């Protein structure tokens, strides 16, 4: 009986994946182009090509986009260290279809990852809402147009959303098993955090939040909570340590994931920069003379200087820092796609974005009633929006994308409560009719 049950579950999972994959492919086909690629995409591609040629995960070219919108290769001016997961996935595609097979990256890699994200939404829905309502987050995931749109770019978005969807599913599984969590669940949760960080390092600062959530979930049983937390952290370190060792050997310094981003951090924590405009190249700096001095330094020294300037502002002006971060959340991170942006980027279905945000926001308030069950979604949403808004000045849309799996699960709570209410009313009317 147990074997038959497992077989049935595997068949259902495969069916869910195939349905989601067809939906992803139909969305891709609906666009008039097979892919989009930016300077970042060309950089990832260049790193992948060098890896397949035996040169290692390194770039040999830099790329710039001119005023005419054309991306051009230029001589290498800096060595970019990026998370290794996406270049390795590109290597799988290039190994089969050849170098620069960007269209196949979208059709094969991103479509599969997008379908996998929908399956994890279904499995998380099973744990949170029950089997009868697990279709809700599955359908909402497939229906969210920005997942598919950003999946058309040769960028890390589809991979990062997949890793976050896996992380949220495993968090729901831990919450389900809280009284006797399986070692397997703890190891997988740690591995998911490590892999996600090696795509984009936004969960590096999540551990204090994770530790608090585990302690609260365990009802303040310190011994069990510390054991579970230690196993998760250990597994995360095991997954990430090969990258740390490689960077130490190659660059003679500790690089957790990447070696850039300090300028964006400096701009995001600059008292002169504005908090409702995301084009950071147009942002003012502390002092033109200071900026001119820094730009004459070697790249690694520039990164260090910008990082120190940003940190010193945070430490010296904590209240202003918090106020500016919350302003960036309100004015940028949580703002839905505007009509102009939707038309300019030719996004299909972009008007749905504001309705997804509204549904998720209602779910946030409802989750407070059932806090123990949905607390991991609430904490992750608060953490991610704060961290992204703290680090830099960015718009919603692309940078909000990884938090949307959590918002969709929270929005599903609204839909499920509504469906259950309708079912109860219908049942009450039938009973009243029979009595009559």
TrEMBL record:
Keywords: Cell membrane, Glycosyltransferase, Membrane, Transferase, Transmembrane, Transmembrane helix. One of its GO terms (molecular function) is pentosyltransferase activity. The chain crosses the membrane at residues 12-28, 80-97, 104-122, 158-175, 187-216, 228-245, 376-397, 403-423. It is a multi-pass membrane protein. The keyword Transmembrane helix applies. Residues 83-245 form the Glycosyltransferase RgtA/B/C/D-like domain. GO terms for biological process: lipopolysaccharide biosynthetic process. It is found in: Cell membrane. GO terms for cellular component: plasma membrane. It holds the Pfam family PMT_2. InterPro entries: LipidA_mod_glycosyltrf_83, RgtA/B/C-like. The keyword Transferase applies. PANTHER family: MANNOSYLTRANSFERASE YKCB-RELATED (PTHR33908), MEMBRANE PROTEIN (PTHR33908:SF11). This is Glycosyltransferase family 39 protein. The lineage of its organism: Bacteria, Bacillati, Bacillota, Clostridia, Eubacteriales.
């Amino acid at each position: 009986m147990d074997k038959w049950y497992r077989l049935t579950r595997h068949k259902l999972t495969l069916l869910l994946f195939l349905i989601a994959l067809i939906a992803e492919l139909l969305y891709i086909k609906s666009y008039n182009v097979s892919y989009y690629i930016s300077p970042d995409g060309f950089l990832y591609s260049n790193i992948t090509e060098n890896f397949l040629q035996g040169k290692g995960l390194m770039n040999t070219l830099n790329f710039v986009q001119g005023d005419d919108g054309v991306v051009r290769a230029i001589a290498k001016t800096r060595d970019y260290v990026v998370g290794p997961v996406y270049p390795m996935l590109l290597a799988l595609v290039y190994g089969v279809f050849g170098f620069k097979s960007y269209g196949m990256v979208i059709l094969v890699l991103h479509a599969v990852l997008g379908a996998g994200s929908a399956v994890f939404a279904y499995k998380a829905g099973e744990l949170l809402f029950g089997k009868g309502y697990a279709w809700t987050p599955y359908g909402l995931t497939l229906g969210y147009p920005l997942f598919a749109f950003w999946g058309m770019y040769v960028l890390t978005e589809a991979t990062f959303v997949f890793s976050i969807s896996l992380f949220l599913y495993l968090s729901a599984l831990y919450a389900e098993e809280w009284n006797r969590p399986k070692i397997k669940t703890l190891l997988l949760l740690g591995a998911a955090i490590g892999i996600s960080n090696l795509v984009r390092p936004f969960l590096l600062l999540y551990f204090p939040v994770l530790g608090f959530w585990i302690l609260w979930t365990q009802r303040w049983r310190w011994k069990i909570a510390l054991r579970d937390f230690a196993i998760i952290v250990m597994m995360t370190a095991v997954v990430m340590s090969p990258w740390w060792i490689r960077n130490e050997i190659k660059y003679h310094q500790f690089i957790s994931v990447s070696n850039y981003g300090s300028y964006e951090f400096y701009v995001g924590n600059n008292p002169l920069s504005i908090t409702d405009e995301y084009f950071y190249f147009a942002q003012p700096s502390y002092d033109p003379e200071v900026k001119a001095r820094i730009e004459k330094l070697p790249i690694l020294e520039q990164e260090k200087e910008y990082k120190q300037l940003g940190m010193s502002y945070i430490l010296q002006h904590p209240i202003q820092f918090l106020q500016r971060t919350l302003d960036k959340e309100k004015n940028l991170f949580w703002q839905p796609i505007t009509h102009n942006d939707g038309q300019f980027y030719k996004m299909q279905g972009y008007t749905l974005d504001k309705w997804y945000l509204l549904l998720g926001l209602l779910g946030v308030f409802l989750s407070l009633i059932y806090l123990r069950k949905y607390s991991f979604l609430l904490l992750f949403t608060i953490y991610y929006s704060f961290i992204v808004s703290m680090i830099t000045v960015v718009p919603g849309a692309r940078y909000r994308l990884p938090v949307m799996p959590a918002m969709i699960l929270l929005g599903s709570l609204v839909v499920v409560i509504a469906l259950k209410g309708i079912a109860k009313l219908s049942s009450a009317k039938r009973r009243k009719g029979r009595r009559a």
